[in-house]
Amino acid sequence: MKKYKDKETGKRIVEVEDLSFLRDRDYPYNWFQRHYHHHRLRLALRKADTVIARTKDVSTDLVRYYFTPKNKIVIKS
Fold this sequence. Notes:
Blueprint: E1 2-5, E2 12-16, H1 20-23, H2 31-47, E3 50-53, H3 56-66, E4 73-75
């Protein structure tokens, strides 16, 4: 996850590459790291004006797990 602010418009942008810490239990995170990344991403998505997802699967998971509105998500590969 990357967070930044657009200098021209002043909008908050969050870029999400993958959500493997949520879906893949064999991922090398322990329970605390998974919990930390989940809440950090949740708060960032709540404050963001635009969310950039790397793939269509990531955008689907953002809608499913974090209830992010579809009009807020832009898919960029």
